[in-house]
Design goal:
elongated, mainly alpha, 3 helices
């Protein structure tokens, strides 16, 4: 994901950071997919995933 690439660009050589980046990427893709499955369009789902402009029910 480009977003995570930018956030972690200075730390690419660190194994633990690469693993964390991969885990975050999977989690974010799942969240994005969940929002789209709930009927949100791509832009809204993206904004809700990356900018947290929603209320969590948890």
């Amino acid at each position: 994901m480009k977003y995570l690439d930018g956030v972690f660009s200075a730390y690419e050589d660190e194994r633990a950071v690469r693993e964390l980046k991969e885990e975050l990427s999977v989690d974010l893709k799942e969240r994005l997919s969940d929002f789209k499955a709930q009927g949100y369009d791509e832009e809204a789902a993206y904004n809700m995933t990356f900018h947290r402009r929603y209320k969590r029910n948890h």
